[in-house]
Design brief:
heterodimer; A: alpha/beta; 12% strand; B: 569 residues; alpha/beta; four-stranded parallel beta sheet; 34% helix
Chain lengths: 402, 569
């Protein structure tokens, strides 16, 4: 049976006095290029969902010449079924803070924000105290830990829009504008917050950075597979016996093994969403997929944000579809036409399906809409908003059986 | 830079977008939210293309070309996606039996229709969306029908980026996103200047002017009424466009003939009162200049500009010329002088003006000015009336304006383009101040489409610094500079719309930069071809002073031809 591989979760923070900030201290003794190289070598990929190589992002950021650069920690976790960042913010805030400071130092940013989802009141409370204490202890502000590095960090509470997890919407939100995505290019790394180069990293990414920098050799790179290095926090919910956040080494087990690790399914398993509602589902007979970026991609799905949802057969599929569709219709920002109108129309079709029963043409129309949204939407939200719905339709709905 | 478009090699300049490159290769990519000259917005996603190496399609408006880039503009994938998006747009556009294309104000200039055809959408598989949003009738100038709005944000960007007026905003989220005014107060209750640039930029019929067509028909059909019409300088170079004529075709004679055929009793020219404005405003400038009055003097004929300064820069109001605009001067002269001359009671003389402008509808309703003019028709509305009457505009023989308000000068004609008022004023001010004849009439420095133009003129050994500004965005910038003491002028001309009245909010759509240039050239052509090119030499104006007004700035001239302003902050 699969065992949890503990790398990131190795020591839950007790108090800041006991936390040693080893990774940060080591980093402050290194130059930016070496830190970026170490992160690049570790193979760490962004844990927000898109999976962009962290080292590469930092390289771009470091290459930007600007009087001011910003570092933003994206803690606007909002994907249904995803709660691993909340676990980190509530249980390991010092490690998150440590990662933020290291990242800022590495890309030469002197100002930073942590943007926390407004609904995470406990995490906000904890992190507010963490920042206050950090200033007190010389971890933030001028000449951090006696170095010549200065860094100011501020906490921003999100106002409750899922799309603000998209980095450009998040930047607009910090600037006090509507949480609409921005047109890309330019990318935030080129022109982000207040038109300055801005690096946006996910909570888990930054916490992992702190841990990677702790070790002299690159222990992280030795974990996982060639293409999917290290470990990943997986938040499992739905019809399992022990829903929780688990740390899984890439390639150490299959989706089925992870479900087992979480105590096994409750009721008769129907399908699993491996990475949050922006990813495609895997049917009960498709769960032998190894948990890696490449294997999941080959199976037509994705690691996503790590929000694994297990769904048993006792739930009505049409209700689930309507529920999910409703979420995407409510949360699309409304700027780009394919996402705004496409999602609205998908919901209309699903309502028809609910009233009149399934017809093959529904799948065809939703398929066309999916294609347009996936290929032409302006941000990651839109591009992934139809994956779940279409995959459920595709895998479970056929005219002859319904 | 070498790139490939649809498997063909092209050599392109650096630092241009895919959209621009493709245009240079004579291929058209459909766009809806994109507006030339403004930052790309990337909302409609119709301009997406396939770029080798990219997983998703790429918005051609926002992405710059790079060395060796391989672009496919109309691949199967691209065409399919475009068709789906276009279907979604059409479905969201509120088309029903009540709201169909036949009755839409933009029926002949609808971009949705054009693009749907270009993309090849022949049927809509998607249910139309009923938005059930009320129409905004709160403004004297502009009507907003949110049901037809496709939320492309072009009005918002025109209002903010070009005009810096910012009356529009997005509200709500997702499919409920709408364009609205501050607190949904309606266009008549916010700081709208009525300039109509939102109407010019709207691709659908969601924004249009308040129609005066019915009122005008009623007046014409009323046997009790004597209906006179005046035509603004910028209308004559644009009116041909809705009839398929080239932009910049001078159709003054056909316009006069058409107006007579419509049933107007007298057809007059606003140019006449443009000359009168110059005499009054020029005299005002000379007074202020000689006697140390408030300088710089600001022109006051653009009603969009007037409302803008009233809302935003009331401390500068004393700089405004008190002269009424040519439209209002015409109304006052017609009602108080011409009616008497005809022996018609004032109430039975109806004054209609044909304007390139939506703000003129607001201007005629201002409490200080109400009563001078009864109806304002935009260039577009006049075209509709001519069409409705079955008049074959293109083939009409030219006719001449009626006397006495048909005698005008080239100086008045150039009022229609940015810099014209200034040039006309300088021609007059120079001759009056120096007592000498001006050798070179053309002040080329104030011409052209630049948003701010500056010139220096030497009069009696003194250097007079003038500036000419078009668009309210540029006006704001200049006023800020003036507030900070960074610039000093003696005389400044302000026009609310790009290029001045030729780009006014009541002009035919589309009004692109190319169209503006053609209209502008036509305006200067009219000036060159005029026998009289200085306002103070207009014999009819001279006669009006002799018979009625006595002299510039006389008591009666003050009473009828001047006005005052209101701080609205």
């Amino acid at each position: 049976m699969l065992e949890e591989k503990i790398f990131l979760k190795n020591d839950l923070d007790k108090s800041m006095d006991n936390y040693e900030f080893i990774g940060l201290k080591k980093s402050l003794g290194m130059n930016s290029e070496n830190i970026v190289k170490k992160i690049t070598d570790s193979g760490l990929r962004g844990r927000g969902g898109a999976g962009f190589p962290t080292g590469k992002k930092w390289e771009f950021a470091l290459a930007q010449e600007s009087d001011v650069k910003f570092l933003i920690c994206n803690a606007d976790e909002g994907e249904p079924g995803t709660f691993k960042d909340r676990f980190l913010l509530e249980n390991m805030p010092f490690k998150v803070l440590e990662g933020i400071i290291i990242a800022a130092y590495a890309v030469k940013a002197n100002f930073g924000y942590i943007y926390i989802r407004g609904e995470y009141s406990k995490a906000i409370e904890i992190f507010e105290k963490t920042i206050k204490d950090a200033y007190h202890m010389g971890l933030l502000g001028k000449n951090i830990l006696g170095s010549n590095f200065n860094f100011e960090l501020k906490l921003i509470k999100g106002a409750g829009a899922y799309v603000c997890g998209d980095e450009t919407s998040l930047i607009n939100s910090i600037e006090g504008k509507r949480g609409f995505s921005r047109i890309k290019p330019p990318y935030p790394v080129q022109r982000g917050l207040y038109d300055k180069p801005t690096i946006v990293n996910n909570v888990e990414t930054l916490a992992t950075v702190a841990e990677i920098m702790k070790y002299d050799d690159n222990v992280y790179a030795k974990l996982g597979t060639e293409k999917s290095r290290g470990t990943k926090l997986v938040s499992i919910s739905g019809d399992v016996k022990l829903p929780d956040v688990y740390e899984i080494e890439f390639g150490s087990g299959t989706i089925k093994d992870i479900v087992e690790l979480a105590g096994g399914e409750r009721g008769e398993l129907n399908f699993v969403v491996p990475g949050g509602l922006a990813t495609s589902v895997l049917k009960s007979d498709e769960l032998d997929v190894l948990y890696t970026y490449e294997d999941l991609e080959e199976a037509g799905s994705s690691v996503g944000s790590g929000g694994m949802i297990v769904v048993s057969k006792e739930h009505d599929l049409v209700d689930i579809l309507l529920n999910v569709s409703d979420f995407f219709v409510k949360e699309t920002c409304g700027t780009c036409f394919p996402c705004r109108e496409g999602n609205r129309n998908i919901k209309e079709i699903l309502l028809k399906l609910k009233r009149k029963g399934y017809k093959e043409e529904y799948k065809k129309t939703i398929g066309e809409l999916k294609e347009a949204i996936l290929l032409a939407a302006r941000c990651g939200f839109g591009q992934s908003s139809v994956n779940f719905i279409y995959s459920v339709l595709d895998k479970f709905f056929h005219e002859e059986v319904i | 830079m070498k790139i490939y478009i649809n498997n063909r090699e092209y050599d392109m300049p650096q630092d241009i977008s895919i959209l621009e490159a493709v245009k240079k290769a004579n291929i058209k990519i459909p766009t809806l939210c994109y507006v030339e000259g403004m930052e790309p917005y990337g909302g409609c996603r119709l301009c997406v293309v396939e770029v080798e190496g990219s997983k998703t399609l790429v918005p051609s408006c926002a992405v710059k070309i790079s060395e060796g880039m391989k672009i496919k503009t109309h691949s199967e994938k691209v065409r399919k996606v475009r068709r789906t998006i276009m279907q979604l747009i059409v479905a969201s556009h509120g088309i029903s039996c009540e709201l169909n294309c036949l009755t839409c104000p933009k029926a002949t200039s609808c971009e949705l229709k054009t693009i749907a055809e270009e993309i090849g959408v022949t049927k809509i598989n998607i249910l139309p969306v009923e938005k059930m949003l009320p129409t905004d009738f709160s403004s004297y100038s502009i009507v907003r029908e949110p049901t037809k709005c496709i939320v492309c944000g072009r009005c918002i960007r025109a209002c903010s980026n070009i005009q810096s007026v910012n009356i529009f905003t997005f509200a709500n989220r997702g499919p409920n996103t709408i364009v609205t005014t501050f607190m949904n107060e309606g266009m008549g209750n916010v700081d709208c200047t009525n300039c109509g640039q939102c109407v010019m930029n709207c691709p659908t019929g969601a924004l249009h002017e308040v129609y005066h067509i019915d009122g005008v028909w009623n007046a014409i059909n009323d046997p009790e009424k004597v209906v006179v019409v005046q035509t603004a300088p910028a209308v004559r170079v644009a009116l041909g466009e809705p009839f398929g004529m080239e932009p910049g075709t001078i159709s003054t004679g056909k316009m006069v003939a058409a107006l007579r055929l419509l049933g107007f009793d007298k057809v007059f020219d606003t140019n006449f009162t443009a000359d009168l404005t110059i005499v009054e405003e020029g005299t005002e400038f000379i007074h202020r200049f000689k006697e140390g009055g408030k300088l710089p003097l600001f022109t006051s004929c653009s009603p969009g500009w007037i409302k803008f300064i009233e809302h935003n820069y009331p401390e500068f109001l004393p700089h405004l010329s008190t002269a009424k605009s040519p439209q209002q001067m015409f109304g006052a002269v017609a009602k108080h002088y011409y009616a008497k001359k005809l022996g018609v009671p004032k109430e039975n003389l109806v004054v209609v003006s044909i304007m390139p402008c939506t703000a003129k509808k607001y201007e005629m309703n201002r409490p200080e000015l109400v009563g001078d003019v009864d109806y304002v028709l935009t260039t577009r509305e006049l075209a509709k009336m001519i069409k409705e009457s079955g008049i074959d505009f293109k083939n009409l023989p030219d006719e001449k304006y009626d006397d006495p308000f048909g005698i005008t000068t080239g100086a008045a004609a150039i009022f229609g383009t940015s810099g014209g008022v200034m040039e006309a004023a300088l021609r007059t001010a120079y001759e009056i101040l120096t007592g000498k004849e001006l050798e070179k009439l053309d002040f080329v420095g104030v011409r052209g489409l630049n948003k701010v133009k500056e010139a220096e003129v030497e009069i009696n050994g003194k250097k007079i610094k003038v500036a000419v500004v078009n668009t309210l965005g540029a006006a704001r910038k200049l006023l800020e500079k003036m507030r900070n003491g960074e610039v000093e002028y003696h005389f400044v001309e302000f026009m609310a719309c790009p290029g001045g009245c030729i780009g006014g909010g009541g002009q035919p759509i589309p009004t692109t930069e190319e169209v503006l240039i053609k209209r502008m050239e036509a305006i200067y052509e009219i000036d060159y071809d005029s026998k009289l090119r200085k306002s103070h030499e207009n014999p009819a104006v001279k006669k009006l002073y002799e018979e009625f007004l006595k002299e510039p700035h006389s008591e009666i001239a003050h009473h009828l031809l001047h006005t005052h302003y209101v701080a609205r902050n």
